[in-house]
Design goal:
Largest sheet: 8 strands, mixed
Structural class: alpha/beta
Order of helices and strands: HEEEEHEHEHHHHEHEHH
Number of strands: 8
Shape: globular
Oligomer: single chain
Helix content: 25-40%
Amino acid sequence: MMNTTGRAMAIAVLAASVGTAHGETAEINGSDIYYETVGDGPPILMMHGGLGLSHDYLRPYFDTLSDTHTVIYYDHFGNGRSGRPDDYSEMTFDRLVSDAAGLMDHLGHDNFTLIGHSYGGFVAQDFVTRHPDRLEGLVLIDTVPAFDYAPTISGPDEQMAAFGKLFSQPMADNDDWRSTWGEVVKLYFKQYQEDTGADLDDRTVYEYQAWNAAGPLLGTFNMLDKLPDVTVTTLAMAGQHDGITPPGPGAERIGALMPNATVVVFEESAHYPFIEEQDAFFASLKEWLNR
């Protein structure tokens, strides 16, 4: 197992070994959408989770794909460095999917691979049901086809109290959201490392209103009847110890629904296998991308 110093060094080495992304904005659906691109080659669009977080936690990890692909990160509407609505009821799945399609139109990519993690996986599933002809492939990481189950998560009292708060009441402001998430995210790792958590926190742009709006929006999400009709080649990946989207209700359930899905479960990870088992995760992902 990698110790704290070793993990910090690995993050630094990985960050230094990949390309530099350049932040820009595009006006999509009347609002600024912030995005960064790194690498050169066939395009990959990355959808971050949260909601209420920015895309930054996906970096530098997925930058390793930039040796063969153009990796495009962006912040969902109302999140991160993208434009904020006056009324977060504007942040619907229709809008989030339309923004993704509009951004790729703006960048001149008719076809691309789509990767969605966690809540980004919900948006990605909705996207593939609306625009299957645009996708060369779909990767769903630690997500579920419908939010119709109870999380199987446990931990210290302080973390469980924060988890209960997070899913039972709105966050008061960004400080409240950041501090609450800072405790909850520890439950999302099989072996939480303080240096990793501090690094992610330092680089994340928090938006509590997006989180508050995301829960009710998730109540409308159900792809159970739609995924069996999706023929896009799909890779469903998950950490075995993910109590938020366990492999049974998550990746394996997606694999059972989708006719062209491959399932990969990582035995020593929870919600972030691309952090906890970087080598195995990206070896599997790269093999699938180069299929």
